[in-house]
Design goal:
Helices cover 71% and strands 0% of the residues. By secondary structure, it is mainly alpha-helical. It has a single domain, classed as MFS general substrate transporter like domains (Growth Hormone, Chain: A). It starts with 29 loop residues before the first helix and ends in a 10-residue tail after the last helix.
Amino acid sequence: MRQAGVAATHRKPSGHSDRSGYDSGGGLAAPQRYHAAASAGERCAESMTNPVTRRSEGSATPDPRASGAEPQPRLWTLDFTLNALGTVGFFGSFFYLVSVLPEYIDSIGGEKWQIGVIVGGFGIVPMVLRPFVGRWSDRGHRKRLQRIGILTMAVATVLMVLSEDVISLFVLRVGQGVGMALFPTAAASLAAELAPAPRRGEGLGYYGMATSSAQMITPALGVVIAGLWGFDAVFIVAASTSLATLLVVQPIDEPASDARPEDGSALIARRAVFPMLIFLSVTFSIVAASAFLPLHGDDRGLGNVGLFFLVSGAGAIVVRPVAGRVSDRLGRVAVAVPGLLLACTGMCLVALAQSPPMLWFAAALVGLGLGASHTSLLSLAVDRVPVSEKGRAAAVLQLAWDIGGLTGAVALGVVATLLSVVSVFWTAGALVLVALVTLLAASMRGRLALTAAD
């Protein structure tokens, strides 16, 4: 994405033509295609300054692949691939805990409301740090932030072996919050930077697919490991996974920063706030599943609830690349609305579930909804800001996880205490429905117009 009249080119160091992001063979030489694309982007960006030509996000976007005028820029460069694999490893280390942590808290004498606080309370730190991380990412420190985040997560996780009370466990969760502030924000910003502009939605879909891959596999593994060798074994395996991820991201060649002195020092990309608020409703649903599904499963006899994350992760994996490609062609709202509807329906079915198969079906809907809404709304957030604010836009969207994890876990914990555990899932579904209506209203009123274009 470019500011009006400014081409957003990656200032690559010399000697990195092998990671240029363009397919070899046929057509213009890579540098010629690069400058041709930049010129086209300048003309497009200039047209955005004219209110008459200003386009709304709800409208369809022409697919550059249909013209055949020039070769399609390559998405799966080495750096993009390593960033995706590193994301799988980092989130895998985190998701090992989601299915076993509530039961571990219960085993050391924690109350229901304390489960919500500990599971979601670590979001305090990311909520504070993430805007700063977004700005640091825009200034070219993404790889460094990734490495610090990985190490912080590994240390905080392995120390859980020594934790035997809710206070020390909460402190370590706060430490994990530092890692969750650093790595995901830097990785999302890097994915948006490495993905070619015409394929940004697709690229961010694959980035999100990496997180869903971890969600699909490691929660169920965490349950199995805890059953065979105990909770301490889960903490050790999760910390080891974090350390292995450090080796994966080390070879990444980070692009030079596009930030300029005149871009200012604002922490928040304001035009990314609305997509974040819409996605916040979905994070409430995920928090409900993470914190209270084990208890709901015990009450209803729903079996290994870790399979919920396996199925929902599979649904998100299937839909993310498709959702990204469709949003590149038809617009972000055209994908976000069905995604929100699926998430809402899935949460209502979780509340109604009386058998494992019904829970699995609900999980599939939740996963499809999460994948479609996250991909489209992250792309929308990045679309609506200048090129120098991509990191901050990604940080704002990621804040939905922090706010949802913190306020959602605490608020839903109160709902569970005052009403019942099943009421948590009805409440989460209702919030997603409200967000869906709000997004449709904003789109119909033309309030999602973009201010810049690639």
